[in-house]
Design a protein that fits this description.
Length: about 300
C-alpha cells in the first residue's frame, strides 16, 4: 500500500515486478490491477461515491469561491454522468486516468510572461464533437465579455473546428492550426531533416520577405512539399499572415502538453478528489505568480520581455 501511495500513477505491471523482486511472489496482472484499485479507494474514496458527490462539489465550489462557475450534466435517458465544467473566478478574472476512464478537456491560455494560464476544465466520458461543443457553450459567455479578439490554437479536430465556429462565431476570433500537428502530417508524406528546418523557418517568419526566402528553398528542395503546405490557409499557420489584432505570436499549442504533464498525477483520482486537487494546483500557481510579480520593476514590462530586450 505504501508503494501505491507514493506512486499513484504506477501501472499494474510495476506492482507485479515489485512483488516478484521484493517478495519473490508472482501475481497476475488482474490481481495487481485490483490491488492498486483497492489501495486508491482507501486513499481517495470510491469512484462510484465520487460521482454521486458531484452536485455537492459544484455547490461548494460556487459557495466558497464566489464568482466561480461549476456545473454538471447527466444523460436524461440513462441517468449517466455526462460532464463537469469548472472555472475558478481567479482564472476568469485573469483572462477577461481513473477506474471509468474518461477525458479532461481543457481551455488554457498564456499569461503575459508566457506562463500557462488555466482557464477551465471539462471532465467527460469521451472526446468528441458533442463534448467539445458542450464545453465551449458553457465557456463562451464568460470569456467574450470584452471586445478583444480571441486567438485559438488547436490541432483542429472536427469537433473543435465546429465548436469554435458555433460558439464564438458572433465575436472576433482567430483559429490557428498548430504547426507541430501540421508538420507531423506533412512529414509522413515529405520527410527529411533539412526540409523540416526550412518549413519551420517559413512558419516562424515575421514578414513576407523572409517567408518567401525560406519557401523558395523548400520549392527548390521539394516542389510538391511547398504545394502541399500552401494548400492550407496561410493565416492559420504562418506568423507573417497572422491578424495584427491578435496579441499571440505562437504557432503551436505546445503549452497544452505542459498542461497535460501538470495534471498527470491527478488522473488516477476519483472525480471529486481530482477537482479538489486541481483547485489547489490552480491557486498555488496563481499565488506564486502574484508573489513573483511583486518583485519585478515597475517599468511596464514583464520579466520575459525585459530579458528579451536585454539579449537584443
Amino acid at each position: 500500500m505504501g508503494y501505491v501511495s507514493d506512486h499513484i500513477n504506477c501501472k499494474p505491471s510495476a506492482i507485479q515486478s515489485r512483488m516478484q523482486r521484493k517478495y519473490k511472489v508472482k501475481i497476475s496482472y488482474r490481481t495487481a490491477w485490483h490491488a492498486r484499485h483497492i489501495c486508491l479507494e482507501k486513499f481517495f474514496g470510491s469512484f462510484e461515491d465520487s460521482y454521486r458527490w458531484v452536485p455537492e462539489l459544484c455547490r461548494q465550489i460556487m459557495e466558497t469561491n464566489p464568482g466561480s462557475i461549476a456545473t454538471w450534466s447527466k444523460d436524461g435517458v440513462q441517468e449517466q454522468f455526462n460532464g463537469l465544467f469548472v472555472m475558478y473566478k481567479a482564472s476568469l478574472d485573469g483572462f477577461l486516468n481513473g477506474k471509468y476512464g474518461g477525458m479532461v478537456l481543457a481551455a488554457m491560455g498564456l499569461d503575459n510572461n508566457n506562463g500557462i494560464f488555466p482557464i477551465a476544465i471539462y471532465i467527460c466520458r469521451n472526446e468528441c464533437k458533442e463534448t467539445w461543443n458542450n464545453f465551449l457553450s458553457i465557456l463562451a459567455p464568460y470569456v467574450t465579455l470584452n471586445e478583444n479578439p480571441i486567438t485559438f490554437i488547436s490541432d483542429q479536430q472536427k469537433g473543435l473546428i465546429d465548436g469554435v465556429a458555433r460558439q464564438f462565431g458572433h465575436v472576433r476570433h482567430h483559429h490557428r492550426f498548430c504547426f507541430r500537428h501540421l508538420y507531423k502530417n506533412m512529414k509522413s508524406k515529405y520527410p527529411g531533416a533539412y526540409l523540416e528546418e526550412l518549413v519551420w523557418r517559413a512558419a516562424k517568419s515575421y514578414n513576407e520577405v523572409d517567408y518567401n526566402y525560406w519557401m523558395d528553398q523548400v520549392e527548390a528542395l521539394n516542389p510538391d512539399a511547398k504545394i502541399w503546405l500552401e494548400k492550407h490557409p496561410k493565416e492559420e499557420w504562418t506568423r507573417h499572415k497572422f491578424d495584427h489584432t491578435s496579441n499571440c505570436e505562437h504557432i503551436t499549442n505546445n503549452f497544452s502538453e505542459s498542461f497535460n504533464n501538470w495534471i498527470l498525477k491527478l488522473r488516477p483520482l476519483p472525480i471529486c478528489k481530482f477537482v479538489m486537487e486541481y483547485e489547489k494546483l490552480v491557486m498555488e500557481t496563481l499565488y506564486k505568480r502574484e508573489q513573483l510579480g511583486l518583485t519585478w520593476s515597475l517599468n511596464g514590462l514583464v520579466e520575459r520581455a525585459e530579458n528579451r530586450l536585454k539579449r537584443h
